[in-house]
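Researcher: Predict the fold of DUF2752 domain-containing protein.
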Amino acid sequence: MTAPTRGRSIAAPLGVAAAAVGGLVLLHVRDPRTSTYLPCPLHALTGLWCPGCGTTRALGDLTRGDVAAAASSNVVAVVLVVVAVGVWGLWLRARWTQTPLTLPRPNRPAVAVLLALLTVFTVVRNTPWGTAIAPT
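Model: Structure tokens for DUF2752 domain-containing protein follow.
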């Protein structure tokens, strides 16, 4: 069996990038602020903003280069986009250099802190003093 060529080894990261670009083009062409996308089931049932509410609008704003509007829709989504692009770049580099992708494994305290921060974010955005981080 022969070793995969560089072209074949980077096919998966490039396929993921193509799918992401396709989705972002859709969000750019069909603006989430003026078009009807699938609403959040939790918000539709309870009126509460979940941690993901505003992500579609945030991604649409990012396609227009409006980082401030994206952050006002969902700041967590903006941070996750930066992290996802970084991990994707590491994945592409690992495939290109044909080395294993090594990412740090999260430990329990780190996961607990992240879950606590996400919980606080969700609670605060549903209170009157948290309107600045509620989706716009």
